[in-house]
Amino acid sequence: MPAQRKRRATWITQVERAAAAATLGCPPWEVGSCIGCGQLMRRYGRNAAMACDACRASAIPRQRGA
Q1: Per residue in 27-65, pLDDT tens?
Q2: Widest pairwise Cα distance in the chain
Q3: Which residue from 29, 37, 43, 58 has the highest number of Cβ atoms inside 10 Å of its Cβ?
């Protein structure tokens, strides 16, 4: 079994959650951390993603040519 990474628990204050929700245009209860980098994003609710755009872009293999 591979070794698991140690992660420090990230606590989002109500002020941070409200500010992120206002920026993202979603309710505060839909804000969460990206599983890849920990950036605040729309993590819960309809059409939400598990990873931020940057992490998803780096995970998609790109084809060259044609």
Answers
A1: 999 999 999 888 899 999 988 989 998 998 888 776 665
A2: 48
A3: 43
Q: Which residues contact 59 (CB under 8 A, 6 or more apart)?
A: 36, 51
For residue 47, what are its two tokens? 């059409």
The separation between CA 61 and the C-alpha centre of its own chain, rounded to angstroms, equals: 20
- Measured between alpha carbons, how far is 43 from 7 in angstroms, rounded to an integer? 18
pLDDT digits (tens, 9 = 90+) for 1-35: 455 555 555 688 899 999 999 999 999 999 999 99
C-alpha span between 5 and 17 (Å, rounded): 25
Give the contacts of 36 (CB within 8 A, at least 6 positions apart).
51, 52, 55, 59
